[in-house]
Amino acid sequence: MPAAVPSTTDTAASGSVRMDRDFIAQHQIIERYLGGRLPVKGAQDFEHFCREHPELLDEISLSEHINAALKLLETGGHAPPWEERPKQWWERLPIWVGTAAVLCALLATITLVDTGKLRTQGRALAGLQQRLATQPLDPPTSTRSITLIPSRTAPSRRSLATIGGGEAQLADLKIDVSWSKFSSFRVTIDRIDQGRVAILHNVLRDSNGELHLELNSSALGPGDYQLTLDGLTWSGQPVAQAWATISIAH
Question: What pTM value is reported for the model?
Answer without folding.
Answer: 0.46
